[in-house]
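Loading example: each entry is read as two labelled lines plus one structure line.
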Amino acid sequence: MRALLAVLLSLVAPFALAHKPSDSYLALRAEGAQVAGQWDIALRDLDFAVGLDDNGDGNITWGEVKAHHADITAYALARLRLRSGGADCPADATEHLIDDHSDGAYAVIRFAAACAGEIRILEINYSLFADLDPQHKGLLRLEHGEGTRTAIFSPERATQKFKLAEFSVLAQFLDYGREGVWHIWIGFDHILFLLSLLLPAVLVLRDARWEAIGKFRPAFWDVFKIVTSFTVAHSITLSLAALSVISLPSRLVESGIAMSVVLAALNNVFPLVKERRWVVAFAFGLIHGFGFASVLKDLGLPQGTLLLALVGFNLGVEAGQLAIVSAFLPAAYRLRAGWLYRRLVFVGGSWVIAAIAGIWLIERAFNLKLISP
Amino acid sequence: MSPSNTVTRITRTSIIGTAIKGVLRALAVAALGAAAHAAPFLPADEGAVLERLPVRPGDPISRELRRLRADLAADPQDLDVALQLAQRYFELAGAEGDPRYVGYAEAALKPWWSLEDPPLEARVMRAILNQYSHNFSAAMRDLDVAVRADSRNALAWSWRAAIHMVQADYAAARTDCEALRGIENELGVVGCMAYVDSTTGRAANAHRALSEALARVARASADEKVWALTRLAEMSLRQGDTKRAEGHFRAALGLRVRDQFLLAAWADFLLDQNRPAEVVTLLKDWIRSDILLLRLALAEKAMGAAAADEHIQALTARFDAAALRGDKLHQQEEARFNLYLLGQKQKALALALENWKLQREPRDARILLEAALAMNDPAAAKDALAWLNRSGHEDPGIRRTAEKLKALAP
């Protein structure tokens, strides 16, 4: 008989369901690096998720809600992720209240979240009840300064980004510049490549033996040519890739970068290219540019000020390189005549670099995990 | 809605033309509304009941749901358990009128929900749940595949009929009902066909066929009888026989089945008969249900009862909340609310037109025609008038409104 009933009921189904669906109300106020939040979640929904009606009488009392405050907080805040500047902004509940909405009583969680720095773009990931009720929606009201924005979260639109501060052109330029510096600083493969090319700059090859260079000026010009040609080359490919003129598979790019480090380091031990190392820097710099581009794409390129971002990022990379060079060159020049530099740093260092990069090459080319972070 | 808005609107609607008493009443209502929405609060008493659950944890249905949920948690890929759970939730959605249960049912079917080619039963259930959210095209795609794969799937055929009825595709609905012959018992087949007939100008035939079938099927359950009697009442109304309609309604109510559709239809009948006091008695404990609260507020307004303001305010808050979530499921009801309770004719017409794009049943046509008449805008109602012509629908009230609109047309 059940089947017949289902058939009959189907014929009145389009009557709209009489009750409001499940929603939560999320109000956020962002100020500086802080987010103050108030989250209203229906007690009925919380009861389904964590169980509130302890005595099973069908009534949810204030005492029962209070006894579950820790559960409610843990459950809810684990399903709301606020992020800014690539880092989570951890949230803590500050107060528990109750509010009456048009369809019943809601638990009100007030919370505070702290981000690492001033929030320019707030990323919100909302997954409350996504596994229990895919029809549930989160209704967001986001206040910042004078402005208020609203948005709707659902399992299909679980992550949304909100630009809070209009970036000033200068701030944006500096931001991308900083990212460039940072990327050189954490990009060990780029640093090792540069070092491999720089190590011989304070030496000269005489009769197949490396000897200390006589004057600082030719060493400086050698370094200058290497760094500049590396920068010019990676700027070209970085821009072409960022503008989507050329795109290469990242496995190829990353393997190519590792290969360039291996070859540059081995060239110190078994010199093939002796004079024009800036040509090597240029040629391999083209490959490194594609590597930078993937970073820039991850950061997200501003549509209106694309060129500015590119120039900023390139200059940042350049500044990072200069910092490395200015630390390296004086020290290397001073130590160039001794055994320590010529045997240990130069030959030993080159072998170590070649070995590390060789492992990277295998990892990246064959998609393995051997050592590297 | 913010408290200050509430105060302004309530104050404006209730002060007009009244003396101090009216002002005081308005202020009292506004204060009540403001208190309800003012701010989150800390309940004073641990024993204060904040919420009543519609289904108690100890009820048999709760125990069954808990058992099925535990079974499914142990093996989320168990299609039989998932379907049973989805079916129970789906029935609960109908009984309680709460769309949450549709979401719970969808969650139970999660492993199959996005599959290109799910098992047949999961596909039919997905279609049923999709039509609840008014995803008619997705639902119909699944049902097409289902009936091609299994031409004896009564559930799939009947849901096709239901969706075709909403889309006013009566020829297709008739084909679907025909397909039920031989695979569904008499009440189902006759009920399906009578539903199409009574919408397309053959209410007398439909009434005769369905009442005979009901008399013959001795072992019909109370739910099935309620369904048939409610349809018989509707058919009587379309023939203009209010007395017989009332008899059917009373017979259905006498079966004591909790059925919001029956209550809504009976309340609409009483409102049309200008008997609002009976609606207030009938629905005073149903304020949780949006569709029934709307009818209650209409009745209270017709009687000039004080509670009308409070209930209009509650409905405003609920429609605002639905708008916030981007819902378009309640536009027919919202149009009626705007037209008769807020006096917002223009907004009512816009909503009725928007609703007509999605749903084309007689009650959708009715609100569109009434809103167009209120706005003196026969052109806006041309699609509904064309539908009336094409379907041959008989409802005397709808026909009268249509005649008035045609008289306005140049």
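The first strand of chain A starts at residue 23 and ends at 31.
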